[in-house]
């Protein structure tokens, strides 16, 4: 993909991301409300507290459902990240995991040389 089309797609994705910024923030706040509700629901002992924190989590879930357009904004941000990485030809890859078994295999191969 040449730089002209990357810039056109980047501009479109940026407009979409900015226009959905409010719903992205709303979705993030809804996630925080759900997290708080579930966290305190699991820690509460009395039935009344469990009902209250379950209600808080349910309100957060309903709020998250109403912010579904934020998914389009998050996808647009992903497209912007992809274009940013590919602008100068950088490879787009997942971060390397620090797996002890993989590191052991690499070190064992070095020792056996």
Automatic annotation (TrEMBL):
Top-rank taxon: Bacteria
Keyword field contains Transmembrane helix: yes
Residue spans crossing the bilayer: 6-39, 51-84
Alphabetically ordered keywords of this record: Membrane, Transmembrane, Transmembrane helix
This protein's name: ABC transporter permease
Organism encoding this protein: Planococcus salinarum
Taxonomic classification: Bacteria, Bacillati, Bacillota, Bacilli, Bacillales
